[in-house]
Amino acid sequence: MKPPQVMAFSGDDDIIRIVGHRGARGILPENSIVGFDFALSTGVDLLEFDVLLTADNVPVITHNHEFQGSCVRGPDGDFLKGKAPRVRSLRMEDVQGFDIGRLDGTSDYGRRFPDQAQMDGIRVPRLAELLHLVSQPKYANACLMLELKSDPDSALDPVARAGFVSLVCDEVRGAGLTDRTLLHSFDWTLLAECHRQAPDMPLSFLTQLHDSEDDVGEESSHPVAPDLHQPGISVPDEVSKAGGALWCPHFSEITAHDLARARELGLCVAVWTVNEPADINAMIDLRVDAIVTDYPGRVQRRLSDRGFRWAR
Ligand code: MG
Q1: Which CATH code is given to the segment(s) 4-65+124-305?
Q2: Sign of the torsion angle spanned by Cα atoms 66, 72, 78, 79
Q3: Which of 91, 168, 195, 289 could form an S-S bond across to 11 if both were Cys, CB 3.0 to 4.6 Å?
Q4: pLDDT of 60-102, one tens digit each?
Q5: Do residues 36 and 49 lie in contact, with contact meaning Cβ atoms separated by under 8 Å?
Q6: 68: closest CA among 81, 51, 78?
């Protein structure tokens, strides 16, 4: 029997799951409470988001280690320019001075999401705020794909790694959400540490073998990911050997053969980040377990048009 949160990400004959990527990045500020609340309120129970630490060791939800001028405004209200501040060097009270409610439409990153709402006063949330949100009875079905972002500057430091995992897992445990949370990362060494400290929380392994145009304006995961390029390697076999419950390949890299192999190994397969209608349809055709998307409503529509559901 699979753990309940793995079941929540698993498809069925007429079910393909939808995972709100950073909430609903296509239409609302990414990694924001307003975005998470919106996705959940539309019946999308599964949320993906990114966690890293402030200087005072507060787990916060934000994607990049350095605040980017394309999506972050400073206390003066302007998009950041010049040297980008590192989240790890800011105290929580300073993090709260930045506003993540708008995109700079003149930036490459901003141009990728022309439909995102432009809001003011949106702050980088603590992990604890999201845990509180999903603890409400109305969101009892919500499950979390919690991505631990390892800092390339300290990824090889076992003490830093253990400390990061411990702070994150303690918060999830304290909120009573261990049976609704997956620990998710590109950094397989970090996931091994997660298993050592929290064997009750299933692991979700991200893979990306090739760069994608979808990555414009974002930090790369390559410095911390293992090399999976050796000839003849089976990525799902590697994920299974490493103790994964989920395998999360970039959608352009999934094949019917690897999907079948993953199923043989008992892995649940969630593909990311699928936004274009043709790509969404291709993933439905393949019958992946779950689709991670910046546009949860768009995937709902494709699924319902084709007679699928995303929840029981
Ligand atoms: Mg992520």
Answers
A1: 3.20.20.190
A2: positive
A3: 289
A4: 999 999 999 999 999 999 999 988 999 999 999 999 999 999 9
A5: yes
A6: 81
Closest residue by Cα to residue 290 from 14, 17, 6, 3: 17
Centre of ligand 1 to C-alpha 68, Å, is 16
Structure tokens belonging to residue 131: 């845990």
Distance CA 270, CA 292 (A): 7
Q: 218 C-alpha vs ligand 1 centroid, how far in Å?
A: 11
pTM confidence score: 0.97
- d(CA 273, ligand 1 centre) in Å: 9
Q: For residue 21, how far is its CA from the centre of ligand 1 (angstroms)?
A: 7
- Centre of ligand 1 to C-alpha 295, Å, is 15
What distance in angstroms lies between residue 115's CA and the mean position of ligand 1's atoms? 20
Question: Hey, where are the domains in the chain?
Answer: 4-65+124-305
Q: Distance, CA 243 to ligand 1 centroid (Å)? A: 20
